[in-house]
Write a structure and sequence with these properties.
349 residues, Immunoglobulin-like, paralog of FGE (formylglycine-generating enzyme), four-stranded antiparallel β-sheet, four-stranded mixed β-sheet
């Protein structure tokens, strides 16, 4: 036993005998601060105003927060230091399109400083002014008598008038609605969005319709085929708008194995529509199934199935798959393919 301990015990015994107690300072507590990990959005950001709904998830130990918004590394907004929970980002005025980084610079009650960030895309509603082409309704022979088995038999279909997108839906349009870009060939605002699943397109459409007050939807397979062959103006071309595929389409032999900006071919089809052959395959609303032989009006396909219809061929397709009457079906829950995209239609009523 060393000298200090002996002295400590000696004085403790004296103090105890005098009715005093002595405690070592072992019960002092230290403040523990837990770092907050993420920024949460209460709703999906759709407009600049929704930035005000960005909050820090766990606000337990926060003392102050300063919010920053940057674009391309340049600071465009900074809040005052906020000292009250929930430390929401106050509404900044954003008037330009683009991809933004939102940063919360946090000081916690232990005086530690750290930052958490999230990203945000905003595109003004003008990007959602989707160019549409009117397709006058009528009766046509759907399918082919000489193509693959699933293109037979030809059968009469009567369609009401509708409008259809002049272009495939672009990455900028998808991002303006969804805040994300799933494309395999990204960083090209005017290229078609791809790697989109059929179910995700339904979410896109419902949000788009809420934003625009319109009633967009995917085309039925019959509407897609009627528009692609040129509607009542059809000249019966092998590809949408020409028998010479290079005039109208990005396909496996001329695409450079990638998507291209929509509407870049000099020639449209008979109705003025771009890229119905090639660039990206286009999802239709129907379940894929054999054609009926009986005449029908505004057919929507069977009520259930396992795969949805894709039409038109894409940037990687050979000539047989690029034919305007060719059909494919794909398991949308499995495949996330960089040559699957879509365009929209609207009923005319
Ligand atoms: Ca296409
Ligand atoms: Ca086929």
């Amino acid at each position: 036993m060393n000298k200090q301990i002996r002295i400590f015990i000696y004085f403790t015994l004296i103090l105890t005998n005098l009715g005093c107690s002595l405690e070592l300072p072992i019960n002092r507590s230290f403040k523990q601060c837990t770092k907050t990990a993420n920024i949460t959005s209460v709703s999906t950001p759709l407009t600049p105003l929704d930035l005000s709904l960005n909050i820090i998830g766990n606000t337990t130990d926060i003392d102050t927060v300063v919010w920053f918004i940057t674009k391309g590394g340049m600071e465009i907004f900074r809040s005052n230091a906020l000292a009250n929970s929930p430390f929401s980002l106050t509404t900044p005025t954003l008037t330009e399109d683009g991809n933004f980084t939102i940063t919360a610079r946090i000081t916690d009650k232990c005086s530690d400083r750290y930052e958490i960030t999230t990203t945000y895309s905003y595109f003004s509603p003008t990007v959602l002014n989707i160019s549409m082409v009117q397709v006058e309704g009528g009766t046509f022979q759907m399918g082919s008598s000489s193509g693959e088995a699933d293109e037979k038999p030809t059968h009469p279909v009567t369609l009401s008038s509708f409008s259809i997108g002049k272009y495939e839906i672009t990455q900028a349009q998808w991002r303006a609605v969804m805040g994300t870009n799933p494309s395999g060939f990204p960083n090209c605002d005017n290229c078609p969005v791809e790697q989109v699943l059929w179910d995700e397109i339904q979410v896109f459409i419902s949000k788009l319709n809420r934003l625009t007050g319109k009633k967009y939807r995917l085309p039925t397979e019959a509407e897609w085929e009627f528009a692609a062959i040129g509607g009542l103006l059809s000249k019966g071309y092998t590809y949408s708008g020409s028998n010479l595929i290079d005039e109208v389409a990005w396909h496996g032999a001329n695409s450079g194995k990638k998507t291209h900006e929509v509407g870049q071919k000099n020639k449209t089809n008979e109705l003025g529509i771009y890229d119905m052959t090639g660039n990206v395959w286009e999802w239709c609303s129907d379940w894929y199934s054999p054609y009926p032989k009986d005449p029908s009006t505004n057919p929507t396909g069977p009520s259930s199935g396992t795969v949805h219809v894709l039409r038109g061929g894409g940037w990687d397709s050979g000539l047989p798959n690029s034919r305007v009457l060719n059909r494919e079906g794909s398991v949308q829950t499995v495949l996330r393919d960089s040559d699957y995209g879509f365009r929209l239609v609207m009923s005319q009523n």
